[in-house]
Every structure is written in C-alpha cells, then in structure tokens.
From TrEMBL:
Keywords per UniProt: Antioxidant, Disulfide bond, Oxidoreductase, Peroxidase, Redox-active center
Gene giving rise to this polypeptide: ahpD
Natural source organism: Streptomyces himastatinicus ATCC 53653
Assembly description: Homotrimer.
One GO BP: cell redox homeostasis
Name of the protein this chain belongs to: Alkyl hydroperoxide reductase AhpD
Amino acid sequence: MALDTLKSALPDYAKDLKLNLGSVIGNSELPQQQLWGTVLACAIASRSPRVLSELEPEAKANLSPEAYTAAKSAAAIMAMNNVYYRTRHLLSDPEYNNLRAGLRMNVIGNPGVDKTDFELWSLAVSAINGCGMCLDSHEQVLRKAGVDRETVQEAFKIASVLQAVGATLDAESVLAENG
C-alpha cells in the first residue's frame, strides 16, 4: 500500500508524521470519494513528486473517473485562485477588490461531481496554498450546505499532513544527494 511506502520512507525524526499519515488517511471517517479526492488534490498541491506518485494510483482506484478529474481540477483552479485572491487580500489598496477578476473559473460552477465534495477539495488545497480568503469562502459554502466542522477539519488535517510529508521527503532526497 502506498501509505505504508510513504510512512516507511519518512526519517525517524518525523515519527509524528508517520503516525499522523496513518491516522488522517487510514482512519478517516470521510466517505471514500471525499477522502480520496482530498488526498489526490492535496498530493498535487503539495508539489511533492514522491507524495503524488505514491498516492495517485490508490486515489485513482478509489475514485470514479469523474471524481478523479474533479479532484485534479480542484487542485488546478485553486493553484490559480489562491495566488490571485491571496494577493488581492494582501495588497493594501482596497480598490483591487472592486476590479473584475476576469479569470475563467467555470469548473467551480460545474465540477462534474457533488458540489460539496469539490468545495471540500478546494478548501484543502487552499489550506496548503495559504489563502485565507479562499479558506473562508469555501468553509462558508460547506457550512451552509450542512457540512459539519469535523468534516471540514478532516480535510485540512489531510492537507497539513500531506504537505509536511512532501516537504520532509523532498528535503531528505536533497540531503541524500548532497551526501
């Protein structure tokens, strides 16, 4: 199983990550589609080739073709939106908030899967990318749709662990090359 491969690849100093990786994925109470869509979208957003290559096959096996595509779409659109909206929020000139974005975001309106799942995946990717505006927006949509805080938290727990695992494994790879 890919999860075991990732856990065994983590160095001893990252024991907490090993335990958390098993917990947030292996013991998740999320439905399969929400879980594996979150895992895939976050693996992509982590920018770690190792995390993505290990987890993508299992995600693909656990998702319908539509959900697989939608999870990748969530990672793609949020990669753009998180930079745009985070920048707009961080600029001190409030007039940027009055300008039309002019960026295509059609997939948000028609993701090809249940809108709640897509919103959950978008929230998780926004957590990795650190966009407060997007986090607030997606959390509000999820809460209005009746999603409880525990489910929202599950998504950003997965995001935080996968991001940390990717950063650790990628750093270890570079350190090993440097000998």
